[in-house]
Specification:
By secondary structure, the protein is α/β, with parallel strands linked by helices. Helices cover 34% and strands 12% of the residues. It is built from eleven helices and twelve strands. It has an eight-stranded parallel barrel with strand order 3-4-5-6-7-8-9-10. It has a two-stranded antiparallel ribbon with strand order 1-2. Strands 11-12 form a two-stranded antiparallel ribbon.
Length: 400
C-alpha cells in the first residue's frame, strides 16, 4: 500500500526510463507543496544577473550535531528569525543560500525525512521569498566521511564503492524536497544538487588529480550523481521541470570544474538555459583562507582573481551556462582595509561576467592571536547588525 500511495504522489519516469533507484520513503509523512505560482524565466543567465549578491545562512540548517530541530543551533548559531532575514533583505542582499543537511533527519529505514524538519526549512525559505529574495537550497553536509563502504542513510560519496547507496539517498531526498517545493515557488527558488562533493578521508579530498585513478573514478561517479539528482527534480514536473539547478564539480572548486572530466548533465529540451555551474572561491587561497597565509591583497593576488573569473566566463558563461559562486569570503586576519580591497575586486569581477556570489558566513569573526582559520563571520545574527559595515558597503557598491 505504501508504494502504491507513493506512486500516486509522484511519478519518476524520464524519457520513458525508470530510475535505477526508486523512491521508497513513506509518502504519508512527506510535506507537500500546495501553492501555485507562474515560472517566469527561461534563462538562468538572466536570472543569475538579477540575483546580484548573496549571503549564506552558514552553520545553521546544515549543522549535523543533532537529529531533531535542535540541530539548527548545535553549531553555535542562534535560531533563525524572520527579523534576521528581513534585515538581510533591507541590507541589499538579494539572494540567500540556505545550506541544509538531511541525513541526520531521516526517521526510518526508507529515507523518510522528518516532516518537522522539512516544515522548518520551508518556514525559513518562505520568509526570504516573501522579502523578494532569491533562495538556494541544497544537500549540504551529506558527503560521507570515508571512501569505505557507506552505511544506510549517511548521505553520498562520489566513488564506485558507494554509488548505489548514494543513488538511493539522493533519489529519496530530492524526491521529498521536490514534493515540498514545486508549484508554489517560481524562479526565485533555486536547487543545488550537492555541496562540495569530494573524496573525504583521502589525500585527494580537496585536490583533483587527473592522473589519480580515484579522482577519475570520483569525477565519473559525480557526473552520474548530478545527472541523477537533476532527473529526479525534472521528473517531479510542474515548476520543477523548469527549476534552475546548480551543478557542482568535485569539491565545488573551479579547477575541478575546468577539468575535462567534469560534465554538465544533459537537461533534455531545456538545453543549457536552466543549469548553473556551482563553484566556491576562497581565492587566492593564501590571502582568503590560509592561516596565517598572507594579510595583504597584492596586485598579484588581484591578477589571479581576475584570471579565475575570466576562465569561468570563457568555460561556462560563453557556452550558455550561468555561474553562481555559492561560497566566497576572506577570513578575518585583522586586516580590514585589505579585505575591503579584496571584496571590491571580487564583486567587481563577479558582476562583470554576470556571476552572483554568495558570502559564506559561519558567525566566527573574533581573532585571537594569529589564528585566522575559518573566521568568516560578517552578519551579527543576534543583534541583526553587520560586524564589518565597510565590507557590506564594498559589496553594495560593486553589486549594483
Amino acid at each position: 500500500m505504501k508504494k502504491l500511495l507513493l506512486s500516486l504522489v509522484v511519478t519518476f519516469v524520464l524519457a520513458g526510463a525508470l530510475f535505477a533507484a526508486k523512491p521508497v520513503f513513506e509518502s504519508k509523512n512527506a510535506v507537500k507543496d500546495t501553492g501555485k505560482k507562474s515560472f517566469n524565466s527561461d534563462s538562468a543567465i538572466e536570472t543569475v544577473k538579477d540575483m546580484k549578491t548573496g549571503w549564506n545562512l552558514g552553520n545553521t540548517l546544515d549543522a549535523t550535531n543533532a537529529q531533531n530541530l535542535s540541530s539548527e543551533t548545535s553549531w553555535g548559531q542562534p535560531k533563525t528569525t524572520k527579523k534576521m532575514i528581513d534585515t538581510l533583505a533591507a541590507s541589499g542582499i538579494k539572494t540567500i543560500r540556505i545550506p541544509v543537511s538531511w541525513h541526520n533527519h531521516l526517521i526510518d529505514k526508507d529515507y523518510t525525512i522528518d516532516p518537522a524538519w522539512m516544515k522548518r526549512v520551508k518556514e525559513v525559505v518562505d520568509w526570504a521569498i516573501d522579502d523578494g529574495m532569491y533562495v538556494i537550497i541544497n544537500s549540504h553536509h551529506d558527503c560521507w566521511s570515508s571512501p569505505s563502504k557507506m552505511p544506510y542513510g549517511k548521505g553520498y560519496y562520489p566513488n564506485s564503492v558507494n554509488y548505489e547507496e548514494s543513488e538511493r539517498f539522493l533519489t529519496n531526498v530530492w524526491a521529498q524536497i521536490c514534493l515540498a517545493f514545486n508549484n508554489g515557488y517560481d524562479e526565485h527558488l533555486v536547487f543545488e544538487t550537492m555541496n562540495e562533493p569530494r573524496l573525504c578521508g583521502t589525500s585527494h579530498e580537496w585536490w583533483f588529480d587527473k592522473n589519480a585513478k580515484e579522482c577519475l573514478d570520483a569525477a565519473e561517479n559525480l557526473n552520474k550523481l548530478n545527472k541523477l539528482a537533476l532527473d529526479v527534480i525534472r521528473s517531479s514536473k510542474g515548476n520543477n521541470s523548469k527549476r534552475f539547478v546548480m551543478i557542482p564539480g568535485l569539491q565545488a572548486s573551479p579547477d575541478s570544474a575546468f577539468a575535462s572530466e567534469f560534465k554538465m548533465p544533459d537537461d533534455g529540451k531545456n538545453g543549457t538555459s536552466h543549469l548553473i555551474l556551482s563553484t566556491h572561491m576562497y581565492s587566492p587561497y593564501t590571502f582568503a583562507m590560509e592561516s596565517p597565509g598572507k594579510r595583504e591583497f597584492t596586485p598579484q593576488f588581484q591578477s589571479e582573481l581576475a584570471s579565475t573569473f575570466k576562465r569561468l566566463n570563457d568555460n561556462f558563461v560563453k557556452k550558455g551556462y550561468a555561474v553562481v559562486i555559492g561560497e566566497y569570503g576572506a577570513t578575518n586576519k585583522d586586516n580590514l582595509e585589505e579585505r575591503v580591497k579584496w571584496f571590491h575586486a571580487f564583486i567587481k569581477y563577479s558582476r562583470q561576467y554576470g556571476i552572483t556570489s554568495c558570502l559564506w558566513d559561519n558567525g566566527v569573526w573574533v581573532v585571537k592571536g594569529n589564528d585566522y582559520n575559518e573566521h568568516f563571520g560578517y552578519f551579527n545574527r543576534s543583534a541583526c547588525k553587520w560586524f564589518f559595515p565597510e565590507i557590506l558597503k564594498a559589496i553594495q557598491e560593486e553589486a549594483k
